[in-house]
Amino acid sequence: MPDDLPTLSDGGETRETKLSDALSERYLAYAMSTITARSLPDVRDGLKPVHRRLLWAMRQLKLDPASGFKKCARIVGDVMGKYHPHGDAAIYEAMVRLAQEFASRYPLVEGQGNFGNIDGDGAAAMRYTEARLTEVAEALLAGIEEDAVDFRTTYDGEEKEPVVLPAAFPNLLANGANGIAVGMATSIPPHNAGELCDAALLLIENPGATVDELLTLVKGPDFPTGGVLIEPAESIREAYATGRGGFRLRARWEREEMKGGSYRVIVTEIPYQVQKSRLIEQVAQLMEEKKLPLVGDIRDESTDVVRVVIEPKSRNVDAPVLMESLFRATALESRISLNMNVLDAARTPRVMNLPEVLRAWLDHRHVVLVRRTEHRLAAIARRLEVLGGYLIAYLNLDEVIRIIREEDRPKEALMARFELTEVQANAILDMRLRSLRKLEEMEIRKEHKKLTTEQKSLQGLMGSEAKRWRAIADEIAATREKFGSGALGARRTAQGAALPAVMVDETAFVEREAITIILSEKGWIRAQKGHLPEDAELRFKEGDELKIAVHAETTDRLVLIATNGRAFTLKADALPRGRGDGQPVRLMLDLTNEDDIVTFFVHRDGTRYLVAATDGRGFVVKGEEFLAEKRTGKQVLVVEAGRECALCVPVEGDHVAVTGSNNRLLVFPLEQVPEMARGRGVQLLALKDGAELVDAVIFTLKDGLSWRHGNGMKVETDLRLWRGQRAGAGKAPPDRFPRSRRFAG
Fold first, then answer.
1. Domain contains 447
2. Of 17, 341, 354, 532, which has the fewest beta carbons less than 10 angstroms from its beta carbon?
3. Is 128 designated active site?
4. What is stated as this protein's family in its record (predicted)?
């Protein structure tokens, strides 16, 4: 190897460090850069760096609302080349969003050309579109050239950019913000500018105003696409008080009557950030999957105004019920989150509540007012200094002319003769001869008097905090008048307090269809279309056979009782369909290997059941107590260790008949069995020496006790031998009673 090749040490000092330390240090630096310089908005102007740079670059290009448009490609090029060293696509996308009326409540950019639409279509390429600033953006920039905010050097050190904008408009809450950083996120929905200005004026008048007082003015978010806010007032208050929460937003709709008593629903506003085309595709897909049985058809008749037509499958369906089914299943109802995680004036990320956000904006406006006033006072002082020199020159015009003509160093001579400053002397020497006329002197005296009056007024403003806040209140009132009234300021999102609650049975969302539910001995469950006859031929896996088959409908709920005494609930329409083997119950429920399904039945409101364990203990329970939507089920019968739940039979009579493995039968009144919601129950049959309860049935005494015998049924009406009290020992069953000691044979 040649000796003159550079070595690693030629590049500088090399230090050894742990990889974990190096990674954590660099990742922390990256995270902080992402949080403070990319993803989170500033609480003062509500802008991220890319948006602030866009507006500043457009200001530099003189794209004010009264000027012409310029190509977006030119704007994006300036932003990328001078201020924002990122991809042009990201910059253009941010610019497009600022111009979309359905995305921004108060657009900051006025676009000319195709800037996308509410269906989700993207904007045209930047070479085809043009843009300029809106009046709202002008309000954000107002005073920026009067030393209202700090500037910093750009990434290449060649330009200057504002750290924050003066923000005479409450942009953070008015337009909202969204962003995701490393470990942090922000989500702020748009609000009504007029309401925000009213709340800010209240804070000026009463700095200790509470969230409740502010919410009498701020009625919640105000989305550019309208909609109906249905979040309860308590939740809205909690969200604004903590800075975290959410809002439920529904589409606005109306019923349109048709001939023959039929009707259709017209959706005129959809929730914020929902793409209309995808919404219609979602509804159509759910209709194809038969998950919206109340909807007959949906189509889009929108122009520049949203108009989505929804036709019911039957005119007998109530419109509120139809819409409730759509709200529950589709994006016609959306949840908009609130997370007011922003950068404060010290560039520190933190979550603020509503009063803190408004107070931060007001404090920023106070700083801007002070800085602009100081800047104006300095400019007035400089001008008064020059005008003072001019007035001295007019009072001593002949002497001034003599000095200028005869002295070798006229500036020093003027300064010594009339006690002028260097600025005044230079101004006199720079005067033109035409300025010496009498009319010019009168104009200078008039200007001097006007500036002196303004100077005294501004000095009074700087000397009184109360006057400064009155001036800020006047500015906010002007903003309120300009942007918070008329068509632009009118509230678009309705309040949910006027919405009636609509109760809808969930079964209305499922197509009703007759099915037979089949459970095998090895725990495989399935559903087949139609009500199959008892002698229907059913196929199972090798070594498996039928355990229970029940007629039901797809809208039913099934209750399954396991040997561990837990009750589980399954929806009939969720069961595997077809002629296959089905699915193991263990995959659908939280069952252990030792637990099996004892029985299952279709839930019917008002039905009661007798549930009992093999130890002979049991009780009567309402069917509603079995319902449990979780996979883990619900403990109903508490089973003693070493025992199992043996049975669950419907209560359809006035007497109970129980049998045991000790070949005993006991009949006693049902009223002796208590009704409970959970527990071990009471002893139904006395059992000794390890004997177990085998079966039970509830029947009407006058009709007699029946059991299966051969291919028919045997009925015993004289039950005096077996009648007794609950927990009795019982007697041997009658002749020809099944050896299994089960009433079903």
1. yes
2. 17
3. yes
4. Belongs to the type II topoisomerase GyrA/ParC subunit family. ParC type 1 subfamily.
